[in-house]
Model the fold of this input.
Amino acid sequence: MNLGYSIEMSKTVRAYFQLMKPTIILLFGLTGFSALVVEGSLLNEPLKFVMVMVGILLTAGSANALNMYFDRDIDAQMERTKKRRPLPMAQISPAKAAIFGVVVGIVSIGYFFIFTNLLAAFWSFFTIAFYVGIYTLWLKRRTPYNIVIGGAAGSTAPLIAWAAASGTLSSFAWILFWLVFLWTPAHFWALAIAVKDDYAGVNVPMLPVTHGDSRTRKEIIAYTFLVVALSFAPYFLEQLGLCYLVAALFLGIGYLWKTFQYLRTEKKEDSKKLFWISILYLFLLFLAIPLDRFLA
Done:
């Protein structure tokens, strides 16, 4: 094989991978993984377990790819994205990106419909349709609370996972959904404060742009308290045990402390640090869920 062709092929594959926003889909996948472990029925069917996880990752990948397609105009103008995303960098054509997003979505929904059940296929479809149609095309450029409502799309992995495994939805799956849903605004607004000028420059009405940093910080604190409070529900509803409780307690205290610490400085660099801290918090919290179950 020609070396130059091999290098170009590698760049193309990497560009398509980036189109799916790998960091986001991995976190999305972890929330689904945690639900699958707690539900438990697929632990004795490792192949199906893995395939459900692949379907969940492809669902998120499709939504993200189509989001990048429709946001390519503003991504090309924003400092945060124009030199990091494949469409502004002309690594992939818009048409190919759109086709890729649609095909990946069809594969993920089709898998759940054919090999699991209609309920899982519905939540896979809902995730893509809501993120692209409701958040990207409708809310994002119209309301500062776009991420509050639109965050529902990023919260559905536990619902997809539980539905795929059992054909039903449980209160535990919904608690995980609400944990991610309430975590999303504080997480995203921390970044929005840091890159406020980017959003203002492309007329995207993120909360710091429309209501200022002070109001945004207050809402970040409010949502952080809500998600930390809700994080104890699985223990008190006797769905998870002491290992999870200890993790939720220490992670919640740490997350709240860092939130107050970084927001008090009113520095954009600290807001970006809080953005990454929020990812670490959710990652470790959802990692504690399967760990608790395995140690039980």
In short: The domain at 15-165 is CATH 1.10.357.140 (Tetracycline Repressor; domain 2).
